[in-house]
Design goal:
Length: 359
């Protein structure tokens, strides 16, 4: 009993340790083995965009097996058997679903690919699987423990694994890397995670904001920075409309670290806008188009103002930024995020140039 308690404490410490998710995953399996014995193991992250699982760590499994476990065929089998649901650990070979959707302890039909086509290593006859969930029910990943015994795991082992599942989920949770990256912006007040499929979700530990709603043009501007390959970027955004009746907020966009699944592209954070060098909302618009490489005529056409008005705005911008040329002003603005990017509703000069039919 004491050895199990010590092992569980070590598992918790390993889950909370530094390093990448893959490094923690491999260490977690090593610590888990004496607690819930196995002959082979596979620990993976869920990838909802690809509808499969991304392998993080494995023990005593060959490459073809790991490749199969990470593929869409097994993901479909996991979905059919309900292995990705918040149920206690169980053996997929002894689980099915009733007509009401309730899990029953009865053999899975042999036509399921998880049984008929799985290239399991020689000597492996039984498995114990558990879906891993972060707080608030966010599906993080899956753990499969394989055994050479024909007997299902004991009830005590299942209960112990069920108790340890949240610890394992915390250890591999990719959101931790994003939260760590977000801490670079110390005064952030709100934030979301940007997904590759166009969706988003709140970033744990930060509040929500109407500017970060799923259809907000702000998120489209943030995705543009990620698509451009920028690892770190920032810009300003008006509250309450283009004329910023509610002032401006600073938007910081961080590309996701490499150890995060492809489905998570990055984070967008909001923080108070500090010194804007006295630039007006209209001057910030002009500066944003200048950053995009627009000429005075193109800026005038985009903002529906006279070219002379644009020239006056640019004179003010150069003076306030202390920049001798428009090129240096654009560099200054992009470096310090002192501009408001063009929105979908505006016909920016870039769009105008790239559309042959534009006038």
């Amino acid at each position: 009993m004491r050895s199990h308690q010590a092992g569980e404490l070590l598992l918790a410490a390993t889950a909370a340790s530094a390093g990448t998710a893959a490094e923690r995953a491999q260490a977690l399996l090593k610590v888990l083995r004496p607690l819930v014995p196995f002959d082979g193991a596979w620990l993976a992250l869920t990838d909802p965009v690809a509808e499969s699982y991304q392998s993080l760590a494995s023990v005593d499994l060959d490459d073809p097996t790991v490749e199969f476990l990470s593929g869409p065929l097994l993901a479909r089998g996991i979905e059919v058997t309900g292995t990705d649901s918040a149920w206690p650990p169980f053996s997929p070979s002894t689980v099915s679903l009733s007509r009401t959707g309730r899990r029953l302890d009865m053999p899975v039909p042999v036509e399921l690919p998880t049984r008929a086509e799985c290239p399991m290593p020689a000597g492996i006859r039984e498995a114990l699987a558990v879906a891993l969930f972060a707080p608030r029910g966010r599906h993080v990943g899956l753990l499969a423990l394989l055994s050479g015994s024909r007997q299902p795991s004991s009830l005590a082992a299942r209960r112990r694994l069920g108790r340890l599942a949240p610890v394992l989920a915390h250890g591999i949770d990719p959101m931790r890397s994003l939260v760590t990256a977000a801490r670079l912006v110390r005064d952030a007040t709100a934030g979301v995670v940007l997904h590759a499929d166009g969706g988003s979700e709140p970033l744990p530990g930060l509040l929500g904001d109407v500017l970060l709603d799923a259809r907000s043009p702000l998120l489209e501007a943030a995705r543009d920075r990620i698509d451009d390959g920028q690892i770190f970027s920032s810009f300003l955004w008006p509250r309450g409309g283009r004329h910023a009746p509610g002032g401006h907020v600073r938007v910081t966009v961080l590309r996701a670290p490499q150890d995060v699944p492809p489905g998570m592209e990055g984070v967008a954070l909001l923080s108070p806008a500090t010194d804007r060098h006295g630039l007006t909302p209209r001057e910030l618009d002009v500066l944003g188009l200048l950053v995009e490489g627009c000429s005075n005529q193109e800026i005038a056409r985009t903002l529906v103002v006279a070219p002379r008005t644009v020239a006056t705005h640019l004179e003010h911008v150069l003076a306030k930024l202390g920049a001798p040329t428009r090129t240096l002003a654009a560099v200054h603005a992009q470096r310090d995020g002192l501009y408001v990017p063009a929105t979908t509703g505006q016909r920016s000069c870039v769009t105008h140039r790239e559309c042959p039919g534009a006038t």
